[in-house]
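Archive maintenance. Older records in this collection stored only the sequence; we are now back-filling the structure field for every entry so that each record is complete. The fields below show one back-filled record exactly as it appears after the update. Entries are processed alphabetically, and ABC transporter permease is next in the queue.

ARCHIVE ENTRY
Title: ABC transporter permease
Organism field: Anaerosacchariphilus polymeriproducens
Length field: 784
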Amino acid sequence: MNWQIIKKDLKRNKLINLALFLFMVFSAMLAALSVIVAVQTFTSISELYKKAKPSHFMQMHKGEINREAINKFMSEHGDITYWQTCTMIDMYGECITVKGDQNTYNLSDCRLDIGLVMQNKERDILLNSKHNKAVIRQGEIGVPVLLKEMYKMELGDRIILNCNGITKEFVIKEFILDSMMNSTMCSSTRILLSEKDFNMLQGKVGEVEYLIEAYLTNSKEANAFQTDYENAGLPQNGQAVTYSMIFLLSALTDIITVFVLFFVSILLILISFICVRFTILAAMEEDMNEIGVMKAIGLRFFDIRDLYLIKYRTLAIAGVIAGNIFALLISSIFTRHISITFGDKKISIHAIVLSLIISCIVFYITNFYCKIVLKKIKKLSVVETLVRGNRLNKNAAGFKKIIYKSKKLPVNWLLGICEVFFQFRNWLIVFFSSIIVVLMILIPVNLMNTLKSPKFISYMGSSLEDIMIETGNGKNIEDNYETIKQLLKRDEDILNYQEYRRVCAKTVDAQKKLMNLHIDSGENAGNELQFLSGKSPERENELAISYLNANEMGKETNDIIVLYLNGKEKEFVISGIYQDVTSGGYTAKSKYHFSGLNSEKYSFSVNFNEKTDVKKKADEWNEILGYGIKVEPMEEFINQTLGGVVNQLRTIIFVIIIISSCLTMFVTILFIKLRLAKDLSEIAVLRAIGFSKRDIKMQYMIKIGCISMIGILTGIVLTQVLGEKISNVALSSAGLGIKKVELIINPVTEFIICPLFLIMLILLITWIVVRTIKKYNIITLINE
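Back-filled structure field:
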């Protein structure tokens, strides 16, 4: 019997039931996808780490090293289980040429530091796509998947190294998986050579850099170990990397993917609830007399409720199953980055099981919500259900008054607008769905615009300039500093420049344990950064610290911080707390000169006159300054650093726009179909008093267009109000060193393209659906 009822209802309201079914499908699909991507990200990284065994702490160092001192320190440290010092040959991109079947090009535009290495024996292993140890023979080369994706290289392409008069050609044998340098945010990448080729090139090309790697009994102690290492005065001319930092940078792109998918799935579930509620209430109103009869003959509330509930439960079950199947089928689109970066791996059983669990949760939430809506049946009395007709709206009197008095608006516009405003509650489904669709589209779009904007550099510890120049630590650091200064003084294209000197001072954390604080010192240190509280230093006794440092030290703005400089204590006032994703998020800024401390590095931010070609100038300076000094155009640096994240977001946004368009169409169809069925008597009256079919269609177009526009504008306002808060929750929980981001909007997209696209789509669907009015016979309408 129940199945017969469901079958008849499905046949009678095909479009309405199809729309509800698709809402369930999309909700379950995106919820399942967010779980699949999350599980695949962490299981893939874990699988890669099991085979590759990345270090818990790695110190990169250019210059000479004392292996005996390193070995002595490591062997005496109680937390060390294993250590190794690896050699890497740093190469400039212009020294590397790729020769493919179709074209030949060099890597001069690559802003990543490229290093040549040979395979390690036991730890920090470079793997092939099958998660096996990559074996490279003489004359062959293993290229990281990072470079493969950036330049679309293929197996069999030839790599030509040309440096210091030495030319050597290799064939790409493998695309390797690097557990430690697999993200553009790492700023470095490694190319694998055979041991013979590596030994032949060492000392003849490029510059030697050492990777000092340590394995601890507990990877969580990496930050404490870093402090011990630095305090021991061991080599540190380069970036220090901890295990947690490696994991976070590796997973960043996919963490953002999970956040966006999960956020959109929640919005979809909300739309589903709104549509289900509207459909149930419309069905109950249509069946009011039948409900009264059932109550009169003694049917219990639960029996009556279940007659309605069984249909929605069936649609929910079918939608959840279909959504889960679709999620599994299209998951490869969203896990492509995972497969490329961490190796092609089938969807794990954990991902499948958890996606099923989340789909079941979606079903139970939907079922529970339907029960809540259907409780209205319990409140209805037998008399009320049998005698009530279509209740007059409370605002009907005001509605009539406005119509009588208004003489300026055309009648169709007047009727349409008045009904929307005086019976606003009847149009809430269109209003709320428009809001949610706008939020679904604009928040991810604004997040993408922010990450690809040059202004995002202010969250990376730098101000927005044309070019950044950096010189690393080492015996030539002061000579390199003078060389850069002379170059900047001579160049007439320079508008202005700022210089900063990084030093390392000791202080204490919240537990009163010694820790190292890396400070950038300069007259403009901290200017134009994104401060959570306070401001940049204005006096020499002031210090601005990063958000993560503030957490570690338990400090707030205006607190006193004590630095230990050359055996003496010096107090500084914390002028502000800023956001920084560089150097693991642990930095500080000050105007103080710190004359007694050694320089870790110098950096210069340079602005040019308007007509200067920044890229050409950067290439020119790179040639002049040579090894040991990095010259990078700011915009290219951001594009390459965050390009992977932006590209992944772009793919997701494309899918979201398709889903949003479908949802907009389904909601519009669902609402108008139910509305037309409900308004048969009103349509009959309008036709009887002389309104044409065209007039009635126009009124519906005006009503839908008006309420949709209000919803779209409300959605844009809510995007401005809530967009940053929602994005900040995700970014701060990622531990990047960012707590509060000001989303950068594209006014053309937000205020013109998105609203126009949605309103035109809604009006088009409305026009198509309301054409069915011409099939209505006026006599039939009046009789009904």
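Update note: Confidence is low (pLDDT under 50) at residues 389-397. The chain has four domains: 1-58+244-389, 64-222, 398-457+642-784, 467-611.
Entry marked complete.
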